[in-house]
């Protein structure tokens, strides 16, 4: 289960940098950086990916993943079963799918004598107005609105 303070932080930030791990049917692991993640609850996460991405294809073959979150004093690996809930977000010009993870296990990966001092630093580059609009469309789809 995700800590309540992390759930609130993720909701307040809109986009939340994380690392997603998936594997294909042969067990080959793929890691990627994502920012479209939204906690539905302390046990359910939704995240969005480009529909043709390696991660999205892997999730079609093997419906399990790990999301790694970093925030003040936390380095949490969340493992769970995943299913696609939106094949394609209609209002977006390129294909983006929404996935839902039922969290089965959360591991604290911090070690004694070390800590994390905040979230992964992230900023949009390029056309900020278009990125904010795109993020809004994706976040609404992840929320089921």
From TrEMBL:
<protein>
    <recommendedName>
        <fullName>Pyridoxamine 5'-phosphate oxidase N-terminal domain-containing protein</fullName>
    </recommendedName>
</protein>
<feature type="domain" description="Pyridoxamine 5'-phosphate oxidase N-terminal">
    <location>
        <begin position="18"/>
        <end position="101"/>
    </location>
</feature>
<dbReference type="Pfam" id="PF01243">
    <property type="entry name" value="PNPOx_N"/>
</dbReference>
<dbReference type="InterPro" id="IPR011576">
    <property type="entry name" value="Pyridox_Oxase_N"/>
</dbReference>
<dbReference type="InterPro" id="IPR012349">
    <property type="entry name" value="Split_barrel_FMN-bd"/>
</dbReference>
């Amino acid at each position: 289960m995700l800590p309540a303070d992390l759930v609130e932080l993720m909701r307040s930030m809109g986009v939340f940098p994380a690392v997603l791990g998936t594997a294909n049917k042969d067990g080959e692991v793929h890691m990627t950086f994502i920012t479209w993640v939204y906690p539905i609850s302390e046990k359910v996460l939704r995240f969005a990916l480009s529909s043709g991405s390696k991660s999205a294809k892997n999730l079609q073959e093997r419906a399990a993943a790990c999301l790694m979150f970093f925030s003040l004093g936390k380095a949490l690996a969340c493992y769970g079963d995943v299913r696609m809930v939106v094949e394609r977000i209609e209002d977006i010009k390129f294909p983006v799918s929404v996935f839902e993870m039922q969290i089965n296990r959360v591991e604290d990966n911090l070690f004694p004598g070390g800590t994390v001092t905040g979230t992964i630093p992230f900023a949009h580059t390029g056309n900020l107005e278009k990125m904010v609009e795109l993020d809004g469309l994706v976040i609404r789809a992840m929320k089921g609105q």
